[in-house]
Structure of NAD(P)-binding protein:
Amino acid sequence: MVRKLQVAVSGLGRMGARHALHFLGKTPRAELVAVCDPDPRCQEWAQRNLAHYGTKIFNDFDEMLAHPGIEAVVIATVTTTHAEQAIKAIGAGKHVLCEKPLSTSVEVSQSVVDAAKKRPDLKVMCGFSRRFDASYRDAWARMDRGDIGRPAIIRSQTCDKLDPSGFFVDYAQFSGGIFVDCNIHDIDLTLWFFGADSIVKSVYAVGITAVQPALKKWADVDNGVGIVEFWGGKIAYFYGSRMMAAGQHDMTEIIGTEGKVVVNGAPQTNLVEVHEASGVRREIPPNYYGRFEQAFVNEANEFTECCLDDKPLPMKLSAAVQAVKIGCALQESFRSGLKIEFDEIGSRVGGEQLLAKL
Amino acid sequence: MVRKLQVAVSGLGRMGARHALHFLGKTPRAELVAVCDPDPRCQEWAQRNLAHYGTKIFNDFDEMLAHPGIEAVVIATVTTTHAEQAIKAIGAGKHVLCEKPLSTSVEVSQSVVDAAKKRPDLKVMCGFSRRFDASYRDAWARMDRGDIGRPAIIRSQTCDKLDPSGFFVDYAQFSGGIFVDCNIHDIDLTLWFFGADSIVKSVYAVGITAVQPALKKWADVDNGVGIVEFWGGKIAYFYGSRMMAAGQHDMTEIIGTEGKVVVNGAPQTNLVEVHEASGVRREIPPNYYGRFEQAFVNEANEFTECCLDDKPLPMKLSAAVQAVKIGCALQESFRSGLKIEFDEIGSRVGGEQLLAKL
Amino acid sequence: MVRKLQVAVSGLGRMGARHALHFLGKTPRAELVAVCDPDPRCQEWAQRNLAHYGTKIFNDFDEMLAHPGIEAVVIATVTTTHAEQAIKAIGAGKHVLCEKPLSTSVEVSQSVVDAAKKRPDLKVMCGFSRRFDASYRDAWARMDRGDIGRPAIIRSQTCDKLDPSGFFVDYAQFSGGIFVDCNIHDIDLTLWFFGADSIVKSVYAVGITAVQPALKKWADVDNGVGIVEFWGGKIAYFYGSRMMAAGQHDMTEIIGTEGKVVVNGAPQTNLVEVHEASGVRREIPPNYYGRFEQAFVNEANEFTECCLDDKPLPMKLSAAVQAVKIGCALQESFRSGLKIEFDEIGSRVGGEQLLAKL
Amino acid sequence: MVRKLQVAVSGLGRMGARHALHFLGKTPRAELVAVCDPDPRCQEWAQRNLAHYGTKIFNDFDEMLAHPGIEAVVIATVTTTHAEQAIKAIGAGKHVLCEKPLSTSVEVSQSVVDAAKKRPDLKVMCGFSRRFDASYRDAWARMDRGDIGRPAIIRSQTCDKLDPSGFFVDYAQFSGGIFVDCNIHDIDLTLWFFGADSIVKSVYAVGITAVQPALKKWADVDNGVGIVEFWGGKIAYFYGSRMMAAGQHDMTEIIGTEGKVVVNGAPQTNLVEVHEASGVRREIPPNYYGRFEQAFVNEANEFTECCLDDKPLPMKLSAAVQAVKIGCALQESFRSGLKIEFDEIGSRVGGEQLLAKL
């Protein structure tokens, strides 16, 4: 009989609940054996949706970790506990799939990488879901086989639907800011398409609060634009927004010396167009899950396969630290109004050099 | 100094006025010397818009025709007078650009061709504007150079925006019916893409009155679908409608053994898309002029060039009779509920043969 | 613990194998307990892909049917055995999900319906996958809530990618012909959108062999166009083809008195566009599975839910007979060259009436 | 009889020749009375294409200016002579339509504005053609009537087709650099959409030479990205490129608090799509004229109308200086690697302030 990976999910918020369902019903080689969340509403949800499949429900992460038989842990709690739980799980000898970002701090993110290095037998992955999206993979394959020549410019955006409830204001307190929270995906894609060994040369960002002035109290914005230069003559530029009227709209262009690949230039929910008195209309997904559901399912299946068959993960954990480093630098640049520079081995060029340059 | 073609326009209704302006201001090698229309409002329009350029205004076609110096006449009156005026103009030794169709009767249409044959020195053209549209020409060039293999199937539609005013009911009395009035363009395109020598094998059509039941009194419909078989294994199928909510939508697919060319599959007024709370929206032209304005201007310029430089016209006048023949057969098929058949030289296969077949 | 529907799959050809995998790994409430196929290659495939999950492998349908515990049978064999196996399974008290069409014969199709009527406790469904497609469902919901007024015209096509191997020639011997095999989907969609109680008034079809002349020996074509009138003033028209250069392209327009819904007007494999020297290009799925994979998965899950929870199926089995009736009439019209008519209760109007009409 | 504006065109290079033809044949209220160009090939072209319409041909600008009857001069020479000729023409009492930019120097540009101020009776316009494009105008009207709320972010790009001939290397010597030459259009659009009174707060740009390393000798790049902040919480970001594989691609997004308008998000030459073995393909214009021909014709007609009827021009000449100021600042930022800042009245914040800030 087939061996199934024994999976536990920590955190049953919006994304955690989805991960649980993916491992429960859409990942044939995995079995969802346990979940945990201290929130009673989440536990109730688990009772209703998971318990009759035999999934154990915990309210404490450590207790769950001690449950016999668990082989892999999916961490989908608030960002602030990602690293702590990941390190504990690694310590307990579990494979780990951790939601992005590892942390909003470069140092804390690095500590997860350090823990993982000590256990090369374990699979530890930061869940950058877009790497599992069929369209992004198609784009990557085209670039990789030379269809667009040498990639030189990347434009990428992650834009959320306007949420007038004020959700994003509270959220900003712990999110690390728009460049870390939204554009982390664009940064990760850049490191994927330009190569994980790309070395950042400079970072610059600006931002405004167009619809949520209250974001200022967390030094955050609802619209941000950033530019990242890489050594070797490559540039990426990003746009993040929280005020899209029509829905969520991520998109990416990889521009090479002989062509360009565009992912999601014309967003759409499905293959329907409506002709009506006001014109021709299509709808777009309201949120990232509407856009990336299948990518998350792929992620669950591939992570499972890597664990069971001891295959290499499709991405390096260290890239997740690079992404946080760049995201934090963008956020800092926006806050200080200053360009931030790095030397050819990626070390920060300090105030002295900047002064000398002037 | 450059010689300019001396042009007169008969009929200053919606399309006639546009023709007048095209020859006045967008056809450098032509000069609009005269116009005529018995309607006082049209004359007034001409006074305001044309007179100060030196254009003479007549209320009688024959008087205008007698005006010295006129070399070419554009006929844009109601369909019922097209043939008569065209024949008069040919008789008077003028080049003729006649709006489509020559007539709603095959015989009357043929009489124009007969008159033109006697004057091979004159350019006589029926204005199928789509032949001058950049997109249709591009499609034709692709087919002609073999990009889609051998063309075998054509799908083509001409669909007007819903006009709740009842305009189309009155209009139907003289239009010849939807297949003659709307689909005549699709038929002409078919004869262009399949070749002017294509011989019709059978014709079948059905229709309904979905929004304008009053059309029934003229045995017309507001939505019609027809199929035309050609000898040699080719099929064209058409859709005509008067109830599009979003605007005018013509479109054509030429399907070959190795590919397909689509013209106007995704209609649009311009290059603007709006992202708003209800989704992503674009608008489409409200009428055929919004779609084909530039084609009409091209038509004016090329007709002028053919007259001045004695070049062959880009299309045969006889094709215009073929188009009427097929349009009338579609209308008859819809009215009788019967398939209409033709033998290999295009002669009607009568009731006898049909009975024998059964 | 959750009860899982015990499912068996008969036939492990292209589509059968996919059904097996869907019930195995993407249908959380089902368990794939058995499969059968007499072909050794299919059994070998099952050994490699299914056996280690505990699925039993049979080479005989009757033996499989006798296996204890099976609650539902999925029939994905060649069309000619659909009905026989379905009736046997019903007789054995199993729920049935049968691939389309039930049969290429109206009478045989009806025999399945008759068998199902005797067992109202069983769920018997013909798998018209498009009814489970998110885009078609979205289109239906829009129509259903009145967004396009009263639906009056349906245009629908099912066009396969050109397969130069000659596959379709052999296939045509048993497929029932292009109108039954391809357009059965379009007919089913029409019955869905116009309503299951729509009564056909007339049927007319033409066709050509543009790339596979050998199809003539089975009286089939590689391109067919058909028109179906319904009593009450509704028209559907269909196009089926086996020679698309770019890939599979199904599409449907539902045209109402106040708007139009278009499904898959601009086909695409994913959200990628490539800008290259020859222009901007996107790819389209090579076959129906590339387009409808998720619909098949939805079908498996919903069928399972209906069986387990005794919910009504989302479609009537009798509609599947209606679809075959119309498909066969189209095929007959193409073969005879005659329009086929039906009276207001859907009974065939015979040769007498036709003659009398003349 | 109608009075026609007597127009002269200076410079018959690529764009000058087009202006000449537009005023000759597509501007009914204008008459092309004279042209001048010292290049014998251009004069020969004029002999062949213009002389027989009565247009006088000069090889010297001053001689042409002295030709009696000229009322308006179109300047389409190399950028370095724009300002000089414009000032001379103003001095001679002529209306002026000058190609963009007025100069690559802010001061020189301002000198044209100063000259124009002394002759308020004359119409002096810098030809930013996009302001006459139907799509941009539609976008503006939508924003202006509040459809997208308050505009906050503009993304705009001007990207040329790759020209491997090395043309752009030579061209870079006098063009002012990519930000002045290409993005000047995007800057002008920004000043249009955000308002002519928008005050720049900061400017930052980076660039690379991905395909034409020889551009470095003119301190220019073939790909540049820039960000411009405006006081009042608005941001524009730009991309300019000389290496598009598929063709010219300008595009603009105006992002407001309640919606977004996109111009030319999905570029296309016409309404044709080709389905072929490699997928579905459309082509895009090879150059800006393929995209903006009709805008140039509109420009000619509206400039003519303003001159003849003494109407206000649709744009302020001073905005053209603002655009050069921002373009030069982007170019300087790229060259120095430094962010450039401006105070709330738009005055440059010097090195002192920058140092003090550190």
The two ends of chain B are 70 Å apart (CA to CA). The first helix of chain B runs from residue 14 to 25.
